[in-house]
Amino acid sequence: MGMHEPVRMPAVAGQFYSGSPTGLLRQIEQCYLSSLGPGELPVVRMDGPRRVVGIVSPHAGYMYSGPTAAHGFYYLAQDGVPEVVVIIGPCHQLVAFAPAAIQTTGSWATPLGHAIIEDEVATAIAEAWGEFGIGARYFAAEHSLEVQVPFLQHLYGDDLRIVPVMIIDQNRRTAMAIGGAVASALEGRNAVIVASTDLNHYVPASRAEAMDKPLIERIVALDPDGLIELARDPRMSMCGYGAVAAMLYAALELGAARGKMLAYSHSGMVAPMNEVVGYVSVAIER
Known about the structure:
Number of strands: 12
Low-confidence stretches: none
Helix content: 25-40%
Radius of gyration: 17 Å
CATH architecture: 3-Layer(aba) Sandwich
CATH topology: Protocatechuate 4,5-dioxygenase, Chain B
Distance between the termini: 39 Å
Largest sheet: 12 strands, mixed
């Protein structure tokens, strides 16, 4: 095995985002410059304060959620450079047999190159909780983590080190266990946790905004228990609440003190549609 094997190949390049390096870089820049984005390109501050413990980032096609996602990465850029980024996302496929999955070695390929897995941290997370399914195969078709990676590569280049974690059972027990494992592995490290989620799915715009608001309030209040309880209401359709809760459980153990809502949008703001999906970007800080 080479140093960065196994390679997890992209599943949604050319669909959720451009499949060519130049096209993808242009698309990421357009997300930042969009009227729904921060309005300017990010500049990574090498000496930033490193207060951000985690961010919540959406994961639809860049055309739809990219500008909202860009607010979170813009905020990260001003905060300095993390040594490792743990990405926690939900599972949209059927890959059962484990409540959660992690890849501990290798890399993730995108059109921008290889994002290398920080194997020491990944192994520590895997060892802290014995129920992870381990390996690249769990992630083969999943887009929720993948769409975060090019934004991170755009910011940090070849210095980027990632740990991909997928929560399959989005219940409180699993979210707490993942949060605890991540917190124990990241204690004393310069790290950021990216939680990937969209908000409510396929509801009229006014209803999406009304239903998304209390979910965002729970996130900003650093209330993972409340978030899970609210998101499990059958009327709600937030796809990654367990991923966000896991990040919040970890962040609280790592000294998080406040949440900051950076941006909200829904797909109806990008293109006219009767039923929309909600997107939010939140920073969780020490």
